[in-house]
Amino acid sequence: PQKHLQGDINLVIRNNWIFDLTQLIYIVPCCDGSEADNTDFSGIHIYGNVLYTVNYQYPPAIFLDFSWDNSSSPITSFDVHDIDIHSNTIGWLGTYWGIIIDRKAGRTVDGVKIRNNIMYDNHAISLGSGITNVTSDYNLFYNTSSPPSFEGPNSIVGQDPQFQNYTGQNATVFDFRLQ
Length: 179
Fold this sequence. Notes:
Layout: E1 2-5, E2 9-14, E3 17-19, E4 25-29, E5 41-47, E6 50-52, E7 62-66, E8 80-86, E9 89-91, E10 99-103, E11 109-115, E12 118-120, E13 125-127, E14 132-137, E15 140-142, E16 156-157, E17 163-165, E18 175-178
Parallel strand pairs: 1-4, 2-5, 3-6, 4-7, 5-8, 6-9, 7-10, 8-11, 9-12, 10-13, 11-14, 12-15, 15-16
Antiparallel strand pairs: 17-18
């Protein structure tokens, strides 16, 4: 699903089963030029989703792109606060990231919480420089690149989550329940 943020407050994306799209969850602030002033964004909650792809090797599962700029729009400066990403199953992205959060220099992105996610067969988490107040803990990383340096001590690395059926290459037979 694609959502163009225009000053949204308390955006919630929850309990979805999203697979085999060129973008799974892609949030980018943009506008059509009709907005009157700059806007801050607060309260983005993404939880309880199953996100994976078989036929596309590009998409990150969750991409919050606050580096985007539309020079024809009056909204070119904004801050983002309170991002909560938890209890998601993110798998089979091949060589791409499970979660990406990026920002443009001069914009504040803070209050990021990433907790209780299962990341399987992807490159885990990528945060742009200057993102502050980040908490990431209680996540499980399996067959991923190294967890980020800011990852908390309660996360599990290298432990197979033992899905019921995770055969790869056939999205119709995946069963992400744990054994």
